[in-house]
Design brief:
single chain; mainly alpha; two-stranded antiparallel ribbon; 20 helices
Length: 425
């Protein structure tokens, strides 16, 4: 009996320990085929696995992750731990990239984390060319302002002691920018001058110069930021299925980011929820079998004007456009106007859209064909079903007409909307 109780206690302890270590995870739970699934990247994976086996790569990453915690989560520290844990005498850039791509291939991380870790590696390993020239330096600000800036630069190690490298530089940049407006060239000359005056040593100078060259102050999402966003989203909107992936959200856009990378880089968790709920309301309107306009007359009588199916469609999209324009005025968005694709990606991120629905949307010729007009695209969905609420197709197409209309708006912009067929909207 005592032995059984002892074994049970050990078992419970191991489960608690496992749950604690597993609480910090970046396992892929949304993305389908990776943006990084290319021939050249797969060759890097193959080359790496000739030096070290797959299990060792995963073990090295998981051990590195256990050395992190939510409060001090840092991609630069995670990279350093991963490099040390791989067990190779020297890890080349190609081998490091191969390990990251392999972890993505196995689902240990997603494309957002891949991008963060690769960016962090590239910044810390950026080559700094010697510049000992004191000529042609343009030192910004007044003498008094520059002295304050030098003091802030001198204190950069203190920023690092309390923050991750990227966060420390962003804080330094913000504090410096309060004193005087900064430019890239102005920063370069200030850092050089601070080094030459021995305000900072060569090591600190290289840290600052790498951050400047990598424009680290513009990096909108850190590993810690991403973890906090996902943690908040998943707690407020638990995913309906543990494994629900989409290839649509990993498609590359015009700025070489996936829809999901752009979403999570540019928007907070609260903004994502607000955008997703716009699609939820749109669906409710489009699936309604009755939308009416009530006109109140002076004698109290009411004229009720029912909207036809196409008019309901136009009304719903006009309301959506209005709601989107109002988002830019919302204090939460601070003037940033989201795109239709942002709304679709946000809806999927919080589980309002199924991955199968989103992928079917991506394969519809009627939407993405640039030679078709807005009316051609819209009529395929609205006229085919006579009413958007009358969906004569089986799952997983249940939400497709709604998404299709939003996607049409995204592809057409303001073009070809002027249609005069006698409808109210």
């Amino acid at each position: 009996m005592i032995l059984r109780l002892f074994l049970l206690t050990i078992s419970l302890f191991l489960q608690i320990s496992w749950a604690s270590s597993d609480s910090l995870s970046f396992r892929n739970d949304r993305e389908g085929r990776s943006l990084y699934d290319t021939r050249s990247n797969n060759r890097k994976i193959s080359a790496l696995l000739k030096k070290i086996n797959s299990e060792a790569v995963v073990k090295a990453y998981r051990n590195a992750l256990t050395e992190q915690n939510e409060r001090n989560l840092c991609s630069y520290n995670l990279n350093e731990s991963l490099l040390n844990n791989l067990g190779l005498r020297k890890v080349s850039k190609s081998q490091f990239e191969g390990s990251i791509y392999h972890l993505r291939e196995l689902g240990e991380i997603d494309d957002v984390v891949v991008q963060i870790l690769l960016n962090s590696y590239n910044i810390t390993h950026r080559t700094i060319f010697a510049d000992n020239s004191e000529h042609h330096r343009f030192l910004i600000g007044t003498h008094s302002q520059r002295e304050k800036l030098y003091q802030l630069i001198k204190d950069f190690p203190k920023y690092l002691a309390r923050n991750c490298y990227d966060e420390a530089y962003r804080l330094l940049y913000s504090d410096m920018n309060k004193e005087v407006s900064l430019s890239q060239n102005g920063l370069r000359d200030l850092f050089l001058e601070a080094r030459d005056r021995r305000v900072i040593d060569e090591e600190v100078y290289r840290l600052l110069e790498r951050a400047r060259l990598g424009e680290l102050h513009l990096k909108s999402v850190t590993l810690k930021d991403y973890h906090n966003k996902i943690k908040n989203l998943r707690s407020q909107y638990p995913l309906p299925f543990e494994e629900e992936y989409s290839n649509f959200v990993t498609q590359s856009n015009a700025i070489k980011l996936t829809h999901r990378q752009q979403l999570l880089a540019q928007y907070s968790d609260l903004q994502i929820i607000i955008m997703g709920n716009l699609i939820k309301k749109l669906r409710t309107r489009l699936e309604s079998d009755r939308i009416e306009i009530w006109v109140y007359e002076q004698d109290g009588e009411i004229e009720v004007i029912p909207l036809e199916p196409m008019e309901r469609f136009r009304f719903s999209l006009k309301i959506l456009r209005k709601e989107m324009s109002q988002l830019a005025l919302n204090t939460q968005f601070k003037g940033r106007a989201p795109s239709y694709m942002d709304l679709i990606a946000a809806s999927f991120e919080i589980g309002l859209i199924a991955g199968t629905e989103l992928d079917e949307l991506g394969g519809l010729e009627e939407i993405w064909n640039p030679r078709k007009t807005f009316w051609d695209k819209a009529s395929f969905w609205v006229r085919s079903f006579s009413s958007v609420a009358t969906i004569m197709i089986p799952p997983p197409y249940g939400f497709i007409p709604v998404l299709a209309l939003v996607a049409i708006e995204a592809t057409m912009g303001d073009k070809d909307h002027q249609i005069d067929d006698g409808s109210l909207f």
